[in-house]
Amino acid sequence: MADIMRLTQRLRGLDASRLVPLVRTTPTILKYLAALVFILNIRSWPLGWHFRIFRPAIMRRLQHRILKLRTMFYSQDRQARLEDEWYDSISPIGSNPMDTVILYKAWASLDESDFNGHLSNSSYAKTLDAARFKSAIVMFPNLFREQGWIPLAATHYHFIREIPMLAVYEIRSRIVAWDQKWFYIVHRFVTKPKKGTKHASEKTKRAGTPPATILPSLRTVSGPEESSSAPSPTPADTYADKTKATLRSVSNIISAEEPDGATLHTITVSQLCFKIGRITVPPELIFAINGFTAHSSPSPDTPFSHSNLPPHMEEVRKLNTGRGGRKSMGAFLKGGWRQVPEGERWWEQAFEGLRERNERNLAEVEQLKKGLEGSRGLEVHGSS
């Protein structure tokens, strides 16, 4: 009671005029704090994820709309020709699908980082959605022209080192393999070295030693070093071996170092396919209609490009401008390609030069897929 009385006397002695400004400014301070928190989490605003995902598509739509407005008073034939030329200009004509790298730049914002000060695990998938969508828009514009889409079947992650909060990083996406239904894209999360710093390969070259692999933990011992008296494998051992093969397959596909000395943080493999409506379209066919090729130009001085088209683009032009117009391409993608005899499939011939490389990479990614799918049996064996 004595303490309460003393506190009451002190409050009575305070000048009320000094408390008024404090009371008046308190709501303002709270407003500024609320606004600051809101701004710091700007990337997580409502519809913020959708904007990041669809930004490349929105830009393409705007460009296409501007083209339509500019040509609205031309004849239909000229409009169609100019539209075809515009699609050609944004297509990767003459490029090798396995050597084409699409960059997506991002940064580890506060709202996407965890309590350890690193990019959170969930943010990798969130950012990867945007990187995949940008890659699709850049590499396959003619697929979307035919109202096609690209469903995602699986994503495999391998975390190597963390990405610090506020760090600027980029995702480098590249097609590595395909079969008659699926194609696989490898995404590499990297950060570039700061100016004036030397990356590992330069240091090891100066020291006279070979560069160490960035993925040493993915290598497994095989051959003579294995013990011949090892016990019979149990189900757990079998799945452990599959896990090792899974990790080894990733390291075999991807080189240990980035060509520009960037630091590799995470490797991701996406398994996807192409569809027109509910119909699955072979990856090589979609690659071909977008101008990709494995052929080399007869003249090294004039590589394949928009002005020097690959041989198979003549067939693509026939489908685009032949009898039936755009409907011919749509009908061909929806199943007309099945009527073409095996030896005459020009879209497969366009990638003959990549057959061996693709088969080698495909064996690795399929091992990755089988290894992870094999883990489904772990719970069953563990419960028995």
Automatic annotation (TrEMBL):
Pfam families linked:
4HBT_2
Give the source's domain of life in one word. Answer: Eukaryota
Note down the stretches annotated as region Disordered. Answer: 196-240
Query: What residues form the membrane-spanning segments?
Result: 29-51
Q: Which UniProt keywords apply?
A: Membrane, Transmembrane, Transmembrane helix
Family classification? Belongs to the lcsJ thioesterase family.
Protein name (record): Uncharacterized protein
- Species per Swiss-Prot/TrEMBL record: Ephemerocybe angulata
